[in-house]
Inverse folding.
């Protein structure tokens, strides 16, 4: 058991009255539904065992801020200040999270700072699916991004239902409210430095705001934005409240991964800076506002904004090198000219999209058929399949679907206003093809040069891993909500739910490492993915219940592989590198019969 | 072969008439009777309820065939079961609910006194289902048959007893076997006792042992009795045989993919071509789920003397390979092991192929918990 009297580590960053003490009480027992197994082992220094972890976490974190007779210790909620007045929504600070024990922040309890009258902002309620979504994104991004954010240790079901009110625009662009009965939960966030010390905390606390600190932060924000572009992450809600003083991302309610890199939004289409690839503009506005509010030197402000652009471009190139399987340190200087040319084309072409206005919303059905060039698909497969230029063109040009709308609202005006330069002129599709062919020729040329100096095998594997589309987490995917529904209907067990989430997280990290997991598929009785190492490829199958599977095989290309069973995991022997091009459409056979029933249809 | 002599024999293939197979019940309702009997015994809650317990009464043999499939006259420490052990086995079968036993060897008839005593002791408790022999005692056929009958060979409750004479490579004179056949056809009805001949197929032999047997019979007794005797033909050889001798024997081989389908054992209660499920006990007490040819650790069920019959029965029911075969049949291995492996490994019998498959699965951990 952790020391209950221990002060939160975050307290040392607050100098004045930025933290409000609140009494924490024992609550009715919550139910653990997700635990980050590796983080659990790190924190509690013991080998993970689900039932043991469940007992320990439920005991430690079944707590509430609602007064009762069972006082435990004090928690602390953080006050915030937003000079732009966009992040707090009428609250005085964190309205539903508080710091608890040494390294934890519990999200999902109404605090004394929850003063907002706005829908869903002042009641402290945290829908379980939102908690799970944040846990998934936090734990992926903490490992995927160079600057690691907080991690989520666990999510617990509070075993209480409430009606979540979701705002949406109807076909007449009127705001409507949809009522959805959902379970509520708490998320246990873990931090070990300033990952949760928000810029808005600093602005409230500090009387003498440091320009240098803001400059450093601005550079980091630009760098993070470049990573977001290449790693295809849309945060959706930048603000002084959603970023730490060190540039760590906080709060992922509106976050999603995207398939294409064209402008698309998850939160609002009112602002250009809310669209994918343009959130840097938001960060710049934020820095500008701080400068204005504190009446800093305006010349310095202009200089910082320029530095942000430079930092963004520089980091983009580094990340682009990663996307094409290269190392910035080892390859960029050697092939600078060729990589620069490719990068410029990539940056320009990857944003091109059809005027499918409504489908710039990440939840719309044709969002993935709206962008013109699928660079991820191209980088993933082109060298692997040793393709010709024409075949490369087929990989690069996306499968489009032009959508005709009966009625267009404000969205068209916004899209044209913000992104006119990126809208595809359909009469010029041929010229786009020529651009693409030129890119492919240059790409072939670059790798022809590289192949004279080194074997391309590891580069190809890296390209494959880094560019592989993320499973179940791209914008229009409602997988997490549906998965939570299955849990609440008892259609899947908690241990299955936890297994799925841990693998969903691991199989969606795209930072190339010694062990990479891709192509997660979640079936009704098991899940599968490929484990890719430098010299090995394995197909892995994890059953929800071992009694379901007596033996298993997988067909990859035309070859069948038997799976070995050890420690509750089924796995093939090493699959040869030349089978890698077939890793997309494997067929699984369970007990001798083809199995293709998926848990949810995504 | 000079004529189609196989037509002289009864088919060993299964049919729906449980009183007509190579192994048969005394009544068509044999399974109902057995189920009722087993419901009062230890096995009632087990998924696999054996019908037969086969044991080596001795592993010694008066023949010394190079490729003996029974691995007789080997280096085993324990050479024979004593009377106390035999009676103990019978009592155990009765208490646990295994309705029949089969006696094999070595050559069981060199332990003829104890054999008769155990048949006598088992009378009214459990049935003698099968006796296997090389037929050397056919030299004095009246004596042996009389003693067997007097001991209670024909007093079974459920099964028609079956006498199997192997004529493989033994050097027993075939006229002794002919004496047995002749005595049998003249003294027993099909419903009293079944007689079968086991012939080993050896490639390259110009004249088969079976032909010689029939010629001998016709020479001694006239026309060979058509439709009275069962014929089992096999390719069994000693699995531990030296490879050079094995090659010399020129036994036909088949790829695992095909021959693995030949085994009909699914550990369901069955009589006809064979009796199953069963437990096979070596002379030293080691137990396995199949007779003779699958003696390897993955199929080891325990030692009767050290662990007891209950332990062996429990293991029979929890062994994952047995569960697998029960669920999918041995042909199911074709779905587990990759095609290339199954097509590139050759075996003489389905038993050898089954052993290979089990060992391959074990080495590569291809089966789950089952």
């Amino acid at each position: 058991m952790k020391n209950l009297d221990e002060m939160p580590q975050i307290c040392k960053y607050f100098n004045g009255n930025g933290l409000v003490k609140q009494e924490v009480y024992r609550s009715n027992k919550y139910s653990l539904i997700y635990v980050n197994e590796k983080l659990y082992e790190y924190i509690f220094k013991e080998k993970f065992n689900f039932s043991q972890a469940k007992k320990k976490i439920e005991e430690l974190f079944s707590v509430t801020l609602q007064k009762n007779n069972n006082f435990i210790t004090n928690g602390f909620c953080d006050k915030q200040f937003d000079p732009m007045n966009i992040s707090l929504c009428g609250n005085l600070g964190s309205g539903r999270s508080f710091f608890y024990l040494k390294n934890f922040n519990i999200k999902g309890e109404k605090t004394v700072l929850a003063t907002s009258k706005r829908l869903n902002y002042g009641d402290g309620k945290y829908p379980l699916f939102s908690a799970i979504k944040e846990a998934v994104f936090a734990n992926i991004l903490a490992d995927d991004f160079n600057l690691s954010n907080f991690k989520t240790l666990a999510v617990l079901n509070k075993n209480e239902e409430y009606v979540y009110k979701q705002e949406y625009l109807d076909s007449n662009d009127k705001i409507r409210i949809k009522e959805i009965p959902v379970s509520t939960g708490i998320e246990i966030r873990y931090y070990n430095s300033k990952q949760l010390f928000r810029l808005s905390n600093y602005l409230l606390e500090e009387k003498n705001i440091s320009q240098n600190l803001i400059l450093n932060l601005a550079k980091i924000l630009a760098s993070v934005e470049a990573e977001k572009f290449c790693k295809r992450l849309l945060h959706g809600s930048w603000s002084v409240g959603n970023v730490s003083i060190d540039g760590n991302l906080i709060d992922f309610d509106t976050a999603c991964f995207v398939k294409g890199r064209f402008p698309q939004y998850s939160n609002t289409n009112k602002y250009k800076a809310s669209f994918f690839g343009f959130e840097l503009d938001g960060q710049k506005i934020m820095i500008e506002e701080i400068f204005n509010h504190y009446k800093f030197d305006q010349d310095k402000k202009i200089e910082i904004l320029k530095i942000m652009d430079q930092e963004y471009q520089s980091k983009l190139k580094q990340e682009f090198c990663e996307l094409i399987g290269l190392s910035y340190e080892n390859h960029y200087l050697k092939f600078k000219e060729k990589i620069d040319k490719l990068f410029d084309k990539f940056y320009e072409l990857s944003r091109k999209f059809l005027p499918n206005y409504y489908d710039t919303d990440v939840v719309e059905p044709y969002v993935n058929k709206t962008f013109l060039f699928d660079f991820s698909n191209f980088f993933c497969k082109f060298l692997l399949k040793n393709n010709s230029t024409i075949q490369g063109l087929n990989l690069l040009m996306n499968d489009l679907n032009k959508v005709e709308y009966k009625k267009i609202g404000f969205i068209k005006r916004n899209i044209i206003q913000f992104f006119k330069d990126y809208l595809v002129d359909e009469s010029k599709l041929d010229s786009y093809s020529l651009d693409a062919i030129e890119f492919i020729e240059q790409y072939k040329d670059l790798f022809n040069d590289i192949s004279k100096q080194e074997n391309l095998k590891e580069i190809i594997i890296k390209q494959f891993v880094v560019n592989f589309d993320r499973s179940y987490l791209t914008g229009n995917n409602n997988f997490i909500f549906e998965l939570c529904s299955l849990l609440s209907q008892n259609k899947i067990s908690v241990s299955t739910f936890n297994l799925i989430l841990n693998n969903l997280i691991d199989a969606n990290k795209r930072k190339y490492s010694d062990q990479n997991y891709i192509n997660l598929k979640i079936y009704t009785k098991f899940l599968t993915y490929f484990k890719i190492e430098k010299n090995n490829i394995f197909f892995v199958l994890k059953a929800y219940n071992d009694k379901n599977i007596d033996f298993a095989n997988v067909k990859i290309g035309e070859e069948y592989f038997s799976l070995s069973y050890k420690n509750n995991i089924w796995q093939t022997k090493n699959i040869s590198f030349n089978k890698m091009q077939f890793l997309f459409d494997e067929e699984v056979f369970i007990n001798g019969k083809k199995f293709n029933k998926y848990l949810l249809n995504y | 072969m000079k004529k189609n002599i196989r037509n002289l024999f009864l088919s060993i293939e299964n049919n729906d008439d449980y009183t007509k197979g190579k192994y048969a019940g005394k009544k068509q309702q044999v399974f109902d009777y057995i189920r009722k009997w087993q419901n009062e015994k230890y096995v009632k809650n087990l998924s696999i309820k054996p019908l037969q317990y086969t044991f080596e009464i001795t592993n010694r043999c008066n023949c010394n065939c190079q490729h003996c499939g029974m691995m007789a006259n080997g280096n085993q420490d324990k050479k024979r079961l004593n009377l106390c052990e035999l009676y103990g086995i019978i009592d155990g079968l009765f208490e646990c609910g295994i309705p029949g036993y089969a006696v094999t060897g070595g050559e069981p008839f060199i332990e003829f006194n104890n054999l008769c005593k155990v048949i006598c002791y088992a009378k009214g408790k459990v049935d003698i289902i099968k006796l296997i022999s090389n037929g050397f005692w056919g030299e004095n056929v009246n004596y042996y048959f009389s003693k067997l009958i007097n001991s209670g060979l024909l007093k079974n409750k459920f099964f028609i007893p079956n006498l199997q004479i192997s004529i493989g490579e033994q050097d027993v004179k075939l006229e002794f076997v002919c004496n047995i056949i002749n005595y049998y056809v003249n003294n027993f009805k099909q419903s009293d006792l079944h007689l079968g001949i086991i012939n080993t197929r050896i490639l390259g032999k110009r004249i088969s042992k079976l032909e010689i047997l029939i010629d001998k019979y016709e020479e001694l007794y006239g026309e060979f009795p058509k439709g009275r005797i069962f014929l089992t033909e096999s390719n069994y050889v000693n699995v531990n045989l030296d490879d050079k001798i094995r090659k010399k024997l020129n036994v036909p081989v088949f790829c695992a993919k095909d021959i693995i389908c030949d085994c009909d054992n699914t550990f369901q209660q069955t009589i006809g071509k064979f009796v199953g499920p069963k437990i096979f006990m070596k002379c030293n007490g080691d137990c396995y789920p199949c007779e003779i040819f699958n003696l390897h650790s993955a199929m080891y069920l325990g030692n009767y003397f050290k662990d007891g019959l209950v332990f062996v029965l429990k293991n029979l029911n929890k062994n994952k390979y047995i569960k697998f075969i029960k669920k999918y049949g041995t042909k199911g291995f074709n779905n587990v092991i990759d095609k290339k492996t199954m097509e590139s490994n050759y075996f003489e019998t389905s038993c050898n192929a089954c052993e290979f498959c089990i060992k391959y699965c074990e080495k590569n951990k291809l089966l789950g918990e089952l």
In short: The longest helix of chain A spans residues 298-323. Chain A has 16 helices and 19 strands. Chain A has a mean pLDDT of 92. Chain A touches chain B at residues 543, 546-547, 549-553, 560-566, 570, 573, 589, 591-592 (CB under 8 Å).
